[in-house]
Amino acid sequence: MKKVMFLLATLLIGGMMLTGCKPEPTPEPEPEPEPTPTTHTVFYKIANKAATGNVVSPCFKVNVTYTDANGQSVTENEATLPWTKSIEVTLPFHAKMDGTYTFDEADLPDMLYFGTLYGIGLDIDYVIPSGGLQGFKKEKFLEYIAAHPEKLSFTVEQDF
Fold it and tell me: Per the structure, how many domains does the chain have?
């Protein structure tokens, strides 16, 4: 009987040892707080004056499409230069601007300046434009654009 009791006690203690030990629960990491949305101003700019002082000839207009605060594309046709648009956005924000220069050949002067001066900035009222201006005689400009029609268009994108 002592052997049976010893065996039962051993089994009972062994069973308690196996089932009584629970692994320590792994603490759940605290979630990182959501960043507070911040509002900023995005500036789109197409300039008409280069650092050299040359000015895009006024015969040029631009059709410009830009991303608004809701992420939608907005188009303005036949905009005069310089052109600036500022919008209030919540970061993160993907800004994009596409432009196509237009002109009427009859309005081209004998000597003209052309080039793409554009940029996108955040919380500033002036964007340093990219590109530059080049002087052309009317005939040379028409030859140049006929050979390089892509020079009438541009695209710029910026993530904020």
Answer: 1
E strands present in 2-144: 39-46, 61-67, 73-79, 83-90, 94-102, 111-115, 118-122, 133-137
147 in the Ramachandran plot: left (φ > 0), alpha (ψ -120 to 50) or beta? alpha
Question: Is 148 inside any structural domain?
Answer: yes
pLDDT digits (tens, 9 = 90+) for 3-50: 655 555 565 565 555 565 556 677 787 777 776 778 999 999 999 988
Kindly tell me if the per-residue pLDDT of 153 is higher than 60. yes
Residue 87 lies in a domain: yes
**Six token digits for residue 60:** 């040029």
pTM, entire model: 0.73
Q: Is residue 11 part of a domain?
A: no
Span between the terminal Cα atoms of the chain, in Å: 82
Retrieve residue 49's tokens: 């004056």
Report DSSP state, residue 53: S
Structure tokens at 120: 């996108």
